[in-house]
Amino acid sequence: MTEALENLTPFAHAAQNRCFGCGPANPAGLHLSFLLAEDGSVVCFADIPDTFEGPPNFLHGGIIATLLDETMSKAVRARGLTAMTRHMEIEYLRPVSSAVPIRMEGSVLRSEGRKHWAEARILNAEGAALAQGKGLFIEVRAR
Q1: In degrees to the nearest 10, what's the CA dihedral of 77, 20, 62, 118?
Q2: 24 CB contacts (<8 Å, ≥6 apart)?
Q3: What does the pLDDT look like over 106-123, one tens digit per residue?
Q4: Torsion-angle region of residue 31: left (phi > 0), alpha (psi -120 to 50) or beta?
Q5: 31-69 pLDDT tens trace
Q6: Which residue range(s) make up the domain with 79?
Q7: Domain containing residue 18: CATH number
Q8: Looking at the 3D structure of the chain, how many domains does it have?
């Protein structure tokens, strides 16, 4: 589970972004940093601290949902769009350990006007899927 073998490029975030998932200006946030893959998908390598646990040594289910939501959202954002979650489905496949390296991957499945369907998954260091999700994101346009 390393970016060294892949051709990934950094995905920039706004300096004053207070987003709970990726915002560097949010002291209580997850501070996720995403990378763009050649195929247009996004990848994030993370090590989520135990302050976000539910059961001891495992991430809270709401945090897992947040990780999947953030990854799908970034997949849409990688297309130059700003969108918000309309609907999301999550499958919790295996417990996600806290304070260990994980990999998140996300991509857009299809788009139709302002609607964008995306998917994401969380993998452990061995590449086993721990959780996965699908969602519908609605593009937000300036008036």
Answers
A1: 0
A2: 13, 15, 17, 31
A3: 999 999 999 999 999 999
A4: left
A5: 899 999 999 999 999 999 999 999 999 999 999 999 999
A6: 3-139
A7: 3.10.129.10
A8: 1
